[in-house]
Amino acid sequence: MPGVLHLGAVSSSSEVVVRLSVLPSSFHLVFPFSSKNMKGGGNKNTYPASRNVSSGQQSASARERTFYNKVGRSSPNPDRSCRPPPTLECSQIQTFLKTSEGVSEKRCTRSELHESPFDICKTASPFRLKKPLLEINRGRRKEAERAKNDPLLQYLRPGMVLLKKFISHTDQVAIVKKCRDLGIGCGGFYRPGYRDGAKLHLQMMCLGKNWNPDSRSYEECRSFDNVVPPEIPKEFKKLVDGALHVSRDFLHQSAIDAEEVSIMSPNVCIVNFYNDSGRLGLHQDRDESKESLEKGLPVVSFSIGDSAEFLYSDVRDVDSAEKVILESGDVLIFGGKSRHIFHGVSCIKPKTAPQLLNDDANLRPGRLNLTFRQY
Ligand SMILES: O=C(O)CCC(=O)C(=O)O
Ligand SMILES: [Fe+2]
């Protein structure tokens, strides 16, 4: 039965064998954004119509399209031991742990994480009280009012563009669900720290390659548990590509050199989850390859959930840093002359996530952020 987890466990004093098997699910892909339709100087408050990516056809209805039609049918991660996984469609995860000498098999395991996987979604309660319609509508009106005068496309500085509300509601829900599934599996969320014991104020998961905060370098598998990070879902890559094209069109329409934002193909993504007290100090993203950094290939950042106060500056100085609020659905791009900016998250603004997202994605209070890079 699709999506059903079979768990069998056999245990002896020297060995534990756990087998999980889940049938993979298939996806039908539909994406909402097409750079081709983007008129930078046109309607400031709408993005272009949806496009069915798989067929390349224009679709009639705009915005509210999803890139999964089967969200929530989770397929736990395939084998991610530090060896080539047998197949990405792998439907089984096997863990062999031996407590005695002579370990012959040691594959995808969580045993070394020392903590249970972090779930970015709330546990569904069968007794969840529905908010009164009046209250829901009041929330929506407030959100719409606030967004009314916000230009959808904002040029923040050379190489830095903000696409407000770029990710549709249904795509945000799908991203949350995908990150949740990956996050509770092998290579999922953990609280990163440094050798001296200091911890970052967030939960992190890497896709593509692992970023090691202590050595400030990328590695093929996580040094603390030998797990190969999950791949970046191709649906995420399509959204990144759409965002890059829309921002280049916008620059072009605004008589700014589109090359300030280069096209790149992400092969690394750092997924951060911040709770209400989460934050991230000012830093530069400078651990990608020399070639990528020299070309100024952009970082593309997705925000979902509660809003964040995002700081950026040419120097590492919180007091003089510029400030921008990143809201759910926003995409921030910084490349070219802004590729080396110092940036960070000074605070999360509690209870600012759209009510509809809370209802449909069941995200914990906090903020999900994905930053895509080309190593
Ligand atoms: O959460 C954010 O907006 C920034 C994340 C970030 O800078 C990073 O992961 O390097
Ligand atoms: Fe960063």
What does this structure look like?
Residues 44-61 have a biased composition (Polar residues). By secondary structure, this protein is an alpha+beta fold. It has a domain at 123-373: Sandwich (Jelly Rolls), CATH 2.60.120.590. It has helices spanning 133-148, 169-183, 234-253, 290-295, 355-361, and strands spanning 6-11, 15-21, 51-52, 57-58, 92-98, 153-157, 160-163, 203-207, 210-212, 217-219, 268-274, 280-283, 299-305, 307-313, 322-326, 331-334, 342-349, 367-373. Strand 14 (307-313) and strand 15 (322-326) form a beta hairpin. Bound molecules: 2-oxoglutaric acid and fe (ii) ion. The site of 2-oxoglutaric acid (AKG) has 11 residues, from strand 11, strand 14, strand 17 and strand 18.
Which kinds of small molecule does this entry bind, naming each only once? Answer: 2-oxoglutaric acid, fe (ii) ion
Largest sheet features: 7 strands, antiparallel
Proportion of beta-strand residues: 15-25%
CATH architecture identity of the domain at 123-373: Sandwich
Overall number of strands: 18
What's the Cα radius of gyration?
Answer: 21 Å
Task: Output the CATH class name of the domain at 123-373.
Answer: Mainly Beta
User: How does the overall form come out from the CA principal axes?
Assistant: globular
Question: Which residue ranges are poorly predicted, with pLDDT under 50 across at least 5 consecutive positions?
Answer: 1-43, 49-76, 83-114
Can you tell me the CATH superfamily of the domain at 123-373? Answer: Alpha-ketoglutarate-dependent dioxygenase AlkB-like
Structural class: alpha+beta
Mean pLDDT: 77
| SSE arrangement, N to C | EEEEEHEEHEEEHEEHEEEEEHE
Span between N and C termini?
Answer: 39 Å
